[in-house]
Write a structure and sequence with these properties.
Elements lengths: L16 H6 L6 H12 L2 H13 L2 H4 L2 H26 L4 H9 L2 H32 L7 H22 L2 H28 L3 H12 L20 H15 L3 H8 L4 H10 L2 H10 L1 H8 L15 H9 L2 H39 L5 H25 L6 H11 L3 H4 L10 H20 L14 E3 L6 E3 H22 L26 H6 L9
Antiparallel strand pairs: 1-2
Amino acid sequence: MGFMAARWRSTGRLDNLDEWGLGGRGFGTFITWFLLGGDLYTAYTFVAVPAAMYATGAISGFFAVPYTIVVYPIIFVFMSRLWSVSHRHGYVTPADFVGGRYGSRALSLAIAVTGILATMPYIALQLVGMQAVFETMGLGGDSLLEKDLPLLIAFAVLAAYTYSSGLRAPAMIAFVKDGLIYLVIAVAIFYLPHVLGGWDAIFGAAQEKLTKTNPATGKPVGAFIPGESGYSAYWTLALGSAMALFMYPHSVTAVLSTKNRNIVRRNAAILPAYSLLLGLLALLGFMAIKANVNVTGLDGLANPQLAIPRLFDQEFPSWFAGIAFAAIAVGALVPAAIMSIAAANLFTRNIYRDFLKPDATPAQEAKASKLASLVVKVGALAFVLMLDKTLALNFQLLGGIWILQTFPAIVVGLYTRWFHRWALLAGWAVAMVFGTLEAYNVINPATKKHFGGSLANIPFTDTQSYIALTAFGLNLIVVVALTVVFRALKVPDGQDSTHPTDYVADRGDPGVKDLPEIIDEGGAATAKS
């Protein structure tokens, strides 16, 4: 299906970035619902969240439920504005918009680099999900090559169909992915409690495990119900993740592929149906505790990411376990494809075209983006092989620390241009350094590895919070303070290439071009510095 998608709803002009990277900007409500669902509900949902519930409980796992509830009112408000200005100016990436809004290639470059960097651990999370399925199936061995060979093969297939078909491939496969996931969850929620002794037994087993003392830390293993000391960690993880989600380039890519602005709002209203699904998925982690699954990997070490695949393997008939494994694997392939396309678009539009080849033709842009999508996947593979995989959820939370620092330039920029471009750049730099160092200094007590979590004390307090939100607060302080200084000194703040009417434009309005017009004009207008 991934390779066949090259001919689905296609003009046959996949040598253009709007066609290859945005699916022709022509997806309607139905396709967009599946595409965004496939984009946002990933191996994070099917593997990482239940694994976190299995390992440490509610704070590190169940925060994802309020997070995916809070996010949709946020995107309902601002995403339609981004759609409008992007379609009027032919913007493909959020960095395109920032460059045009603030007249700054430097700020546009910062947004692009952040998007690429933050996307790689998110893609890595998808690969970890697939690896857990392969290991449960018995694929792999003791040597490094044997252990990672199945993952490398899946990686090669993903890279090939993404290269050939662009965004249409994950859009088409998303139909299969969502159907499989709904089937597996419907069966799991009704069948597994029956064979495990009911919900009371499941919650009782989870409470018993998570309230025990961890010998390595002297503290409880996790949090069955968060106590007062865990409140700040819980709500900051939820709010910070919600604010970060639609800063990711893959989320923006899916939104910009729609054919009018109301499709964006309509999907913000109906996508919460997936949040119900996520709540049920999270509880699989507690079921794995009750089932007493063995999460020891082929390397002899405990790997919570194996909890859900091992649960399915242990409790389902073998034929249905195969369907469940397929659902997880496809659920990882779809978002990994969208993420790599979105990161590649950032490289092509905001690095390759702006700095390396300003006179690039649409065909050259498309070719550069296809090649960049392969490089991004290799970078994601490096995250898989080098970082601590004990709690893969940290991969996504690490990306959130970085990507949230683009929020002031993108979201605030949709409403006002009061922030000074150099203040935004300084705030971004300070927050990126602070957030990265804070995350690096979190050490996993079990593995002793750095980047072992995404929670740290707010400076000068004993209150734990999500590092992304703390860094974001520091970012805003720097931006506001320097904006006041730069405006007082009358430092030039660049030329705004947008107009107030751009932010409410819709398809059919003057200046909102359809894809053939954009292609005939040689691509979208470039931002000047």
